[in-house]
Every structure is written in C-alpha cells, then in structure tokens.
Design brief:
Number of helices: 3
Radius of gyration: 31 Å
Structural class: mainly alpha
Bound molecules: zinc ion
Distance between the termini: 97 Å
Helix content: 40-55%
Largest sheet: none
Shape: elongated
Order of helices and strands: HHH
Strand content: under 5%
Number of strands: 0
Length: 145
C-alpha cells in the first residue's frame, strides 16, 4: 500500500516536473484572459499619470518626460496588441477585427431658433445675437417668447 502511494506520488511529481514547468507555460490560462493585460494597462496608465504629474511639478526635464512617455506609450501599444491577439484567439477562426472607432455622426447639430442666433426665416446662423438677420433682414427676435 505504502509502495503504491509512493509510486503515485513519484509519478505525480515526475509528471509535474516534466510536464508543467511554470516557466515553460506560454501563457497561464486565467479565468479572464484579459485580467493580467488589464492590470498591465492600468499600471501603464498610472505611470503615465505619475509622469505627467512629475513633469508638471518640474521634477523631470522636457527630454526625460518625452522619452519616458514614448516608452510607456510603446508598452501600452504592445499591451493593446496583445489584447487584440487574445481576442482574435478567442474568436477562433474569425479574423481579428480591427478596433475601428464608432463612426462619429457628422451631423451639424441644428440649434433650435430660440437661441436668437439663428434666423427663423432663412435659417442663417450668426455667432452672436442680432436684432435683424444679416441675411434676409427680417427681425430675429420675433420668435422668442
Ligand atoms: Zn434671415
């Protein structure tokens, strides 16, 4: 019995040593594959904040600041790329989707005429309030309650 247990332990140890040397693991498989990347990202952001602060209070020279900032941004880019890579892996066969920012609606917010800057008759807009429209000459205040 003891021999059997010893054998089992020996085998387990052998398998462990041969099979799962921690440094050989390419990537631990965490519950969330992004957890450690998020941590790194947060750390870099914190460094950037500290850097900016030290620069503002005059502890860093312009040159040091720019160099360190560039390093940190490079590191950040690497982390982001890693995030993309992991994401692509998770999606399996699907190709990596480049993270394109949502298209910004190019709508020119048409302010309501109540601001007194937009002519209620011809819709001409002016940087400041006018009594009469510079385009059509009609009174612009009329609409205002
Ligand atoms: Zn007008």
């Amino acid at each position: 019995m003891i021999i059997a247990i010893t054998c089992v332990i020996a085998i387990v140890v052998l398998v462990f040593v041969l099979g799962v040397r921690p440094k050989d693991l390419p990537e631990p498989e965490p519950v969330s594959p992004f957890a450690h990347l998020d941590e790194r990202k947060a750390a870099i952001y914190e460094n950037l904040r500290d850097l900016q602060f030290e620069y503002r209070v005059g502890k860093l020279s312009d040159n040091d600041y720019q160099l360190t900032k560039k390093d940190l941004q490079k590191e950040l880019a690497a982390v982001m790329a890693e995030v993309d890579r992991v994401k692509a892996q998770l999606l399996g066969s699907r190709p990596a989707v480049p993270t394109t920012p949502a298209p910004i609606p190019a709508q020119k917010a048409k302010a309501p005429a109540v601001d007194g800057f937009t002519c209620p008759h011809c819709d001409a807009r002016f940087p400041q309030e006018l009594k009469f429209c510079g385009e059509c000459g009609k009174p612009m205040k009329a609409v205002r309650a």
